[in-house]
Amino acid sequence: MSENISHNVQSIGQSILQNIDQIAANARHQIEISIKEQGLPSIVPYTFTEQIIVPLSESIEAGEVSYPTEQIPSFKEMDAIPAYLDTVLMSISVVKQSLLSYIEANQHTFSLTVLDVIVITKIVDPLIDYFIHHFTESYLTQKTNSLRSEYYQDDALSVPIIKLSSRVAICPIIGEIDEKRANLILERTLMESSAKKIRTLILDLSGVATLDTMMTQHLFKIVDSLEIMGVDIIVTGVSSEVAIGVVSLGLDLQSLTIKQNLEGALKSLGMVEG
């Protein structure tokens, strides 16, 4: 246990472990309610809540953040490739709220001070971010790999539109954006956004090594056309090298909504907690 952590914090951590069945059952119940209310696919395995709560409570008991050493499930293991990512993100948020509700309900029993609660929050938040990152990366990796083998065989598959929720999708762009490719991206994103009722599209440029003047113009054309159709665009994955290159060309990306990575985009959309 960290020397600066109070005995009260350690005790609440032990209590969470002792009452994990109760907390997990409450979380599962709340997840089921949210799934029905939001019309989400029911894809969360029974043990999911415990796999989140155990490392959280062990870290609270230890008084410091301790990341899981055992392999946590990926989307492949959960057989959830067709499902929406927001089911899992919602479930993680519910587990966190169930844990904090238990702590709040027992705050006086364990004589937790305001400082104790702040310490607990500083332990819980990094772990929640870790789980969000893990499942988001797992989902996208699995979806991308499922398309990669056919990537060059079909124009549609070379511009994958991966749905993250009922209204949010991501389009990973890999390689150069010449005029032919730009027209293909524009055609695919317009068609898929309309067909799938997408309201926000994340254009991920992490697979783009450089952006020259022509490529940037194509990018603006894609963004402008989609926004006319009522689709909000968020650009992610702009590396420092690409940003420096764009500035050196005298180009301005300030009119675009840019986030550093997918997690930042999801936070801005309220799909994960900030």
From TrEMBL:
One Pfam family recorded for the sequence: STAS
Record key words, sorted: Phosphoprotein
Domain of life from the UniProt record: Bacteria
UniProt cross-references to InterPro entries, sorted A to Z: Bact_StressResp_Reg, STAS_dom, STAS_dom_sf
Domain STAS: 158-269
Classification via CDD domains: STAS_RsbR_RsbS_like
The protein, known as: STAS domain-containing protein
